[in-house]
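Folding Query — how this chain folds
Tokens — whole-number codes for backbone shape
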Amino acid sequence: VPWTGGFDSTYLVIKYLLEGEKVQPIYFSAVDKRGSEDIEMQALELLDKEIRESFPQISKNLKTTKIVTIDFIPEIEDKLVSLGGHGKSFKHPIGTQTAMMAHFCSYFKEPIYLAVEYAESSIKPGEMSRTYKYFFKHLSFDKENCGFIDEKKLKTEKDKLFLIYENLRFPVIDKTKADMYRDSERLGFKHILDTTWSCWYPERITNRGQGCKICFACKGRIIPSGKYNK
């Protein structure tokens, strides 16, 4: 499970632990120019401690987080550009983190359980988030309602480029943050989600060490009792 210390990925880590699964969290280092990595690493350390103290009976199944620097693969980058590109230089970009996931998938062939949720865009009200739209139309669902890239839904040559993501899994793409928050209350780990970190730009001078309240991660946050409000 890729883990950033944020709401969605922390929910997924604890969900699988409570279901009796062994969880290997992965943190992707230096994937873009955000200044959040130092605080995310602090958040991961705190969350790891809270999970182990709150659920000692399953803590043995939580492996130490692996810090990974993603290798850049030119062939994968060419396919990403054909799909629309990423970063501000493209008209309809995907996020750089989503792009880097494709590079990682090209050489890490085990299933990767990604915490992409059912979310509206914070930029265009009434539309779904770009990550949700990017993947959802190409997904089918297994008996546990976990999404996966379905080759049968890749009709065009451009669609088939999505096979660069074929080992990604989407277990919460049918859930909103509110759904997950209610679920955490029912299962007894809401207090852990309350301490997650969700800001991309904590270094902004007027918000140092806090949420900037204007990035996508801040706007999508629903927790009223965490480090900062929505």
Q: What stands out?
A: Strands lie at 26-29, 66-69, 112-113, 139-141, 147-149, 168-170.
